[in-house]
């Protein structure tokens, strides 16, 4: 997406949604379109939508919106305001249909609160990419110049309409002195003009006066809000509130009823609200107390409203960048680096790389001859193929003399110290001189195009870890000449056996691993695996401490993924395994599989492998907490909340870290001081600044987004930053070649999302929390 996002803003300038839209467009340096006819279909657009602006009815609004955007070719993002909720009564169903039609047109949807995000669950009829960007709170002087000029009134800010709370406020004012009057700050909502007179009559019956200001220009609003004795926001159908924000911006601490949205504001901006029981009696009691303690109706020292306009604009700008198409980047040597796992973005490279085929072997002479025979008829140039047979301690060395005239073949051997396929493959790789390593098992016969198909992608994409298609056949009794006849098309092939369904499904559901995620290592099998020698060396090869059948390929693939490898399945690179899959041959061996699972759990940070409550030397997550600005108590609460997540280690970093930790008196091995030196085996690193509190499963929710790089705002002072080992390592590998900083390369290849803490259960804690019990 090369053009800037244009904001489609249509409606009266005094409307709160329109004012918000124009402010955000200006803050994000986005052009504004005010007429449908000015909208080109190739320009990315953002729309602030409420049905009340696009039509007289919800149906008209939906038709108007869809008619404009249905042929749009560029990304469309939408901020939804006034989310339908059951309290809409008879209008709920029509408004729900309207919002569903709008959502269906959008590539991403923004709402203004987690409360609205939950309401949207009742509206959307399919999964939606939803972001939360709270309404911005403008900065203002927190205290008035003259308290003696304050008016003895209860102020209710915003459009007048049923559900705004004016009637309930009047009812609660029965407990107040009759000299306290009600002031409605704002105009009547269209269609509800009669409510002004109705409220005046109701106030008269209660023996007090009522006044309505009508529309108040922005230039005069703050001064008016500071003049009110009791600021109140008693909305009955709240979804997101610009009026509450306006009170806060004016330095006031409005009286608000406890509820989901109000508690969300308090989590984002602690100390900015006066929260009371959600009832008329609760409001009455709070108003009485406010008259007795007027200082409490002003923002308290140290309270930091969130978000500012700049912070909200940053969140929007990050969303717009996410809609951009990430591109492959060319290396100086003509190879490519791709974003994410997008191996499909690599242009073809017209060259044949040198290849070393590594075959682990143990007492499989007949089967080895079948494999070597198949390697003599490869379509890849024979002069570029090296074959290495890595003998895992057979009593008699493999006999390959018959193939030396056709193949560049080497035999390397190691002692028989048990089944050591990992060590044998490493031994073979150490003798390789090819650019590409192709691993083939000694019982797996490649088709003639196997090496050519395996290396085509690898020649262009040095980060690729590719797996071919392993099919199964009954080769019992077959000799080398049978393979020659079969692969030459002069005879029928062997009886085909069942192909493992779990592999076929895994490749199909992931589009040949194009949609690979952190669990896709399970679909990389070493019997038909290929990668560049450079990548193999950087990863460190197979883990030679793994002895016994199975597991070494999962361990290798998992480490490769965390090291930035691009996983790819090459369905045309076919090799035929002699016999059925292991589980079908034996019916399974639970004891052996359990030993393999226990071995892998200590190495692989996949949560599915670690379900037994143990702690391992390599944690899934490394969390670095900056101690700056903390007290000992606040740091304890932050670290303790992080450790709600079992599979993590916390590092406290800062010059005062040791001093702040000393009063704890703990001996928790999961808490360390300083900076971690090597986090490459862990899935991700999380940096925390400010007194952030992690709610239950907050880190797990963060990981569930699948983002490789993310910044999370937590209120006005807290920041949580996540980066995966995968993104860090790939960026570090190519930064010098691309002539750029690793952080910039990582952002280009993996993007960087920017979200808000309420989405994941993060909140801001106190500087001096109460630890007493």
- Hey, roughly how much beta strand do the residues contain? 15-25%
Determine the CATH superfamily of the largest domain. Spore Coat Polysaccharide Biosynthesis Protein SpsA, Chain A
Class by alpha and beta content: alpha/beta
User: Which CATH-level-2 architecture of the largest domain?
Assistant: Alpha-Beta Complex
Please describe the biggest sheet, giving its number of strands, its sense, and whether it closes into a barrel: 9 strands, mixed
CATH class of the largest domain equals: Alpha Beta
DSSP helix fraction: 25-40%
Mean pLDDT equals 91
Task: Give me the count of strands.
Answer: 32
CATH topology title of the largest domain: Spore Coat Polysaccharide Biosynthesis Protein SpsA, Chain A
Indicate how many domains the architecture comprises: 4
Anisotropy-based shape? elongated
Question: Counting H and I runs of at least 4 residues, what is the number of helices?
Answer: 26
Task: Name a few traits of the molecule.
alpha/beta; Rossmann fold; 4 domains; nine-stranded mixed beta sheet; elongated
């Amino acid at each position: 997406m090369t053009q800037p996002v244009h904001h489609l803003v249509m409606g009266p300038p005094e409307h709160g949604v329109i004012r918000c839209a124009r402010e955000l467009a200006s803050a994000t340096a986005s052009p504004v379109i005010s007429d449908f006819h000015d909208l080109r279909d190739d320009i990315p657009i953002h729309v602030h939508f409420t049905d009340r602006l696009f039509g007289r009815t919800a149906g008209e609004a939906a038709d108007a919106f869809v008619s404009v955007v249905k042929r749009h070719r560029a990304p469309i993002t939408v901020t939804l305001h006034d989310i339908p909720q059951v309290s809409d009564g008879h209008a709920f169903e029509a408004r729900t249909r309207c919002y569903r039609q709008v959502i269906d047109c959008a590539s991403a949807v923004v709402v203004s609160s987690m409360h609205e995000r939950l309401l949207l669950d009742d509206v959307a009829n399919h999964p939606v990419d939803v972001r939360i960007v709270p309404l911005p709170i403008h900065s203002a002087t927190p205290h008035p110049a003259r308290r003696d000029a304050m008016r003895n009134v209860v102020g209710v800010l915003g459009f007048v309409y049923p559900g705004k709370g004016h009637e309930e406020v009047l009812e609660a004012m029965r407990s107040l002195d009759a000299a306290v009057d009600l002031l409605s700050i704002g105009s009547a909502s269209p269609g509800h003009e009669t409510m002004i007179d109705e409220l005046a009559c109701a106030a008269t019956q209660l023996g007090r006066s009522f006044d309505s200001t009508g529309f108040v220009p922005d230039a005069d609003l703050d001064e008016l809000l500071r003049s009110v004795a009791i600021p109140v926001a008693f909305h009955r159908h709240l979804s997101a509130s610009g009026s509450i924000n306006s009170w806060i911006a004016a330095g006031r601490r409005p009286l608000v009823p406890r509820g989901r949205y109000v508690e969300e504001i308090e989590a984002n901006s602690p100390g900015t609200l006066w929260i009371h029981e959600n009832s008329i009696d609760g409001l009455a009691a709070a108003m009485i107390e406010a008259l007795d303690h007027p200082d409490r109706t002003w923002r308290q020292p140290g309270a930091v409203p969130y978000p500012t306009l700049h912070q909200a604009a940053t969140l929007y700008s990050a969303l717009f960048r996410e809609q951009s198409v990430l591109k492959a980047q060319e290396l100086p040597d003509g190879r490519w680096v791709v974003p994410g796992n997008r191996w499909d973005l690599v242009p073809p490279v017209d060259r044949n790389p040198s290849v070393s085929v590594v075959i682990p072997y143990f007492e499989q002479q007949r089967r080895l001859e079948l494999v070597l025979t198949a390697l003599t008829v490869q379509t890849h140039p024979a002069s570029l193929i090296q074959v290495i047979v890595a003998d895992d301690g057979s009593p008699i060395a493999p006999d390959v003399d018959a193939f030396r005239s056709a193949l560049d073949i080497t035999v390397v051997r190691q002692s028989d110290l048990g089944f050591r396929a990992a060590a044998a493959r490493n031994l073979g790789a150490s003798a390789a001189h090819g650019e590409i390593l192709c691993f083939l098992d000694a019982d797996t016969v490649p088709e003639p195009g196997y090496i050519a198909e395996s290396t085509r992608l690898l020649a262009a994409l040095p980060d690729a870890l590719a797996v071919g298609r392993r099919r199964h056949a009954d080769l019992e009794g077959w000799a080398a000449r049978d393979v020659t006849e079969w692969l030459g098309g002069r005879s029928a092939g062997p009886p085909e056996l069942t192909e493992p369904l779990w592999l076929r499904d895994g490749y199909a559901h992931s589009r040949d691993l194009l949609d690979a995620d952190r669990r896709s290592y399970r679909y990389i099998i070493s019997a038909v695996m290929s990668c560049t020698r450079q990548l193999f060396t950087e990863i460190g090869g197979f883990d030679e401490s793994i002895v016994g059948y199975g597991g070494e390929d999962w361990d290798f693939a998992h480490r490769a993924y965390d090291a930035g490898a691009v996983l790819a399945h090459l369905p045309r690179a076919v090799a035929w395994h002699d016999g059925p899959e292991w589980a079908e041959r034996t019916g399974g061996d639970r004891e052996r599989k359990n030993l393999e699972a226990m071995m892998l759990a200590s190495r692989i940070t996949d949560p599915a492998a670690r379900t037994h409550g143990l702690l391992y030397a390599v944690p899934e997550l490394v969390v670095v907490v900056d101690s700056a600005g903390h007290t000992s108590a606040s740091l304890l609460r932050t670290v303790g909340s992080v450790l709600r997540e079992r599979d993590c280690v916390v590092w406290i970093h800062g010059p005062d870290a040791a001093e702040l930790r000393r009063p704890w008196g703990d001996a928790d091995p999961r808490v360390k001081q300083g900076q971690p030196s090597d986090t490459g085996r862990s899935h991700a690193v999380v940096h925390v600044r400010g007194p952030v509190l992690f709610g239950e499963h907050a880190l797990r929710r963060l990981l569930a987004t699948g983002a490789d790089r993310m910044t999370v705002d937590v209120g006005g002072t807290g920041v949580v930053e996540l980066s995966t080992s995968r993104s860090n390592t790939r960026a570090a590998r190519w930064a010098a070649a691309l002539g750029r900083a690793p952080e910039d390369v990582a952002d280009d290849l993996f993007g960087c999302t920017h979200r808000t803490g309420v989405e994941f259960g993060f909140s801001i804690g106190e500087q001096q929390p109460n630890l007493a019990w």
